[in-house]
Specification:
The chain is α/β, with parallel strands linked by helices. The protein folds into two domains: 321 residues, Radical SAM ThiC family, central domain (TIM Barrel, Alpha-Beta Barrel), CATH 3.20.20.540; 64 residues, no CATH class. The strands form two sheets. Strands 3-4-5-6-7-8-9-10 form an eight-stranded parallel β-barrel, surrounded by seven helices. A two-stranded antiparallel ribbon has the order 1-2. Helix 15 runs parallel beside helix 16.
Length: 428
């Protein structure tokens, strides 16, 4: 049975207990959330991550890091280094988005070395194989697309992105033609190209019952991809994006009714004033299913700093109800990230997620902030460094800018407000 089917039998699985323990919640809360689809625990039957996570209502906001090769850089050792950087920086999950080299072998190497939840986008492999073997991604068949999903599930992938909402009607609509950046989702564009060439409907949409059956067989969580997500702020919340969301909501209802765990993916490039409204619309249309967002990136003009633009959007999105943040690195829009870019991207997304957890009233998040504040007031530097989200970075900065006296920092020195207040208290 899937986690959903177990939960609907009013049983608590080991995975549910593990998530309850990590979240500090009653297992029954987790079971009920899984039963009604508002919590997903991505955990393929063929693989159990050492660190299981729950995604959804009432839980800590989670962070994903994208990894994977490209045709220009297909070095699996480099991807393993990025995997280590992501996990060391605190990522809750990783996705292998490889499009270069021996993709199945790379995926298996990454999964063998990975202790956290793993996701993939199977159509990338199908398209790359078609391009390699026949010179055109459109040469893949409908069966190739579905078979790629099966191969990833058989390898033990915990969640798969399927762009089942990119229908011919939406992809060929006037709304898409009016866009500044058109279709920027790689999986969405692959499918749009395939549909134009073959004059057929998206197989992931047309044969969605087969996708459901496959997901139920392996208890793979379906992450319903936003193939029409906006790639420019000017394209946000247009008819194409909304039409796709309505399709995804209906597909999600079918999958959830069949006992399959589902997440909905969201934008993308979104102006800051639209972020909360987009999250609330998604939650309303899907009945509160887990929402997984890329960024959102709130301005288009900061290449090199898009880990910051996405952290701003991610904090607002998570505060409004998004459950899962996909990191963005400083190299977004510029090139394949390096291990240090991965580390920085994960930490930026974690800051956004934690800020939202504090705003949402998560007791553990608020307690963490309080411990840091109390240590700061005491000038307890060892505790401050230990409680820092990135202890190594905090320790390095303090060492590089050492103060004249170890009880203060070099910004204020003996003018430290806490030291002055302490001296004033002693005089009294």
């Amino acid at each position: 049975m899937t986690q959903t089917e177990v939960a609907r039998k009013r049983e608590v699985s080991p995975a549910m207990r593990a998530v309850a323990e990590s979240e500090g919640l009653d297992p029954e809360v987790i079971r009920q959330g899984v039963a009604d689809g508002r919590i997903a625990i991505p955990c393929n039957k063929k693989r159990r991550a050492t660190r299981l996570v729950g995604v959804g209502q009432g839980l800590r906001v989670k962070v994903n890091a994208n990894l994977g090769t490209s045709p220009d850089y297909a070095d699996v050792e480099a991807e393993l280094a990025k995997l280590r950087a992501a996990i060391d920086a605190g990522a809750d999950a990783v996705m292998d988005l490889s499009t270069g080299g021996d993709i199945p072998a790379i995926r298996r190497r990454l999964m063998d070395a990975c202790e956290v939840t793993v996701g993939t986008v199977p159509i990338y492999e199908a398209a790359a194989k078609a391009a390699r073997d026949h010179g055109d991604i459109a040469s893949m068949t409908a069966d190739d697309i579905l078979t790629s999903v099966r191969h990833h599930a058989e390898d033990g992938v915990d969640f798969v992105t399927v762009h089942a909402g990119v229908t011919r009607h939406v992809a060929e609509s006037e709304a898409v033609r009016r866009r500044v950046c058109g279709i920027v989702s790689r999986g969405g564009m692959f499918l749009a190209h395939w549909m134009r060439r073959h004059r057929q409907e998206n197989p992931l949409f047309e044969r969605f019952d087969e996708v459901i059956d496959l997901a139920r067989e392996f208890d793979v969580t379906l992450s319903l991809g936003d193939g029409l997500r906006p790639g420019a702020g000017a394209d946000a919340m247009d008819a194409a994006q909304v039409d796709e969301l309505l399709i995804l909501a209906e597909l999600a209802r079918r999958a959830t009714a069949a006992g399959v765990q589902v997440m909905i993916e969201g934008p993308g490039h979104v102006p800051l004033d639209q972020v909360a409204a987009q999250v609330k619309l998604q939650k309303e249309l899907t009945g509160g299913l887990p929402f997984y967002v890329l960024g959102p990136i709130v301005t288009d003009v900061a290449p090199g700093y898009d880990h910051i633009t996405s952290a701003i959007g991610g904090a607002v999105a998570a505060m409004a109800g998004a459950d899962f943040l996909c990191y963005v690195t400083p190299t977004e829009h510029l090139g394949l990230p390096r291990p240090e870019d991965v580390r920085v991207g994960v930490l930026a997304a974690r800051i956004a997620a934690h800020a939202a957890d504090v705003a949402r009233g998560n007791p553990a998040a608020r307690a963490w902030d309080r411990r840091m504040s109390e240590a700061r007031a005491r000038r307890d530097w060892e505790t401050q460094l230990a409680e820092a989200m990135d202890p190594a970075r905090a320790r390095d900065l303090r060492h590089e800018r050492r103060p004249g006296h170890d009880d203060v920092c070099s910004m204020c020195g003996d003018y430290c407000v806490f030291k002055v207040a302490e001296a004033n208290g002693k005089r009294k």
